[in-house]
Amino acid sequence: MFTQVTKGIKISVKTSFEGTFFKNYRKHYAFGYHITIENQSKDPVQLLARHWQIFDALNETEVVDGEGVIGKKPVLHPGETHKYSSGCLLTSPIGAMRGNYLMLNYASAGHFKVFIPTFRLSAPFTLN
């Protein structure tokens, strides 16, 4: 598990290898990631947007930006958590992801970034 805390917001990531398949005559490796966002601060916050950098050992880095996560913009009061799962496709059995969430602090009305720790994506057969 990969974990990081930014301004009282704890991000935990677990990854999974989902398998391989062919798309457009090319082999792809499917990975899942399961994220827990925990508000350990004293203020309520809302997740507004996400920014991802996806590193594929055989391709250029892909950047993904968007509102919320999986169609939601969760509000987290102190002590609350939000969990979600998503995934990505790589053309290599090895890669990594990192990014950040744009959050709104309801107490101060200020925006801040919460960093998502870099996490590895690797198919089990690539490990020694």
UniProtKB/TrEMBL annotation:
Gene3D superfamilies tied to this protein: ApaG domain
GO aspect biological process, one term: error-free translesion synthesis
Domain of life: Bacteria
Domain ApaG: 3-128
InterPro entries reported in the protein's UniProt record: ApaG_domain, ApaG_sf
Pfam families found in the cross-reference section: DUF525 (PF04379)
Name used for this protein in its record: Co2+/Mg2+ efflux protein ApaG
